[in-house]
Design brief:
- By secondary structure, the chain is mainly α.
- The protein has one domain.
- It is built from seven helices and no strands.
- Helix 3 crosses helix 4 and helix 6 packs across helix 7.
- The radius of gyration is 19 Å and the shape is elongated.
- It starts with 14 loop residues before the first helix and ends in a 5-residue tail after the last helix.
Amino acid sequence: METQYSKVAQDGRTAGASSAADAHGLAQTISAGLVGGLAGAVTIWIYEAVVWVGVERLMPLAGIPRNATGLVFGADVQESLGPAAYVLGTAIHVVFACAWGVLFAFLWPFFRRRGFEATLVALFYAMAAWIVMHLAIMTVSSNHPNYYDPNVIIGGFMSHFFFTVPLALIVKQRLAPAS
């Protein structure tokens, strides 16, 4: 009769030990997601500064932090808030990045156990995150780019790849099974 302890995982540990190594505490999982989400939030802003501001000239550099305010509440509210739009936009950006980070941290062990690489999962996670967030933006606001425009879609996916890849690598490292 075969038990879980007689089955050997690919890395040489028993199946029971492999499952035990995946069991991280709630605080450790949340912490990994928050750190990964913050790293992704900074990285996506660097990408936007280089590409959206520097190369494509879509907005001024100062427009990046307040962009989320305009997407969520509309350009009129963004303008009426003045400098507070920068603070609110930054808060929206960081809170959502951290929330997506924590969600990824909870999902990651499922994919790791099945042998997926974190960066591959991150690419699909980026697309899912962009779609969900922009469907939500379309629901709450009429002031947004044309999300049916292929340039907007490709640009959105690209920027979110720059968010999710560092997120995934940090979560992968912080939630690595103990050896």
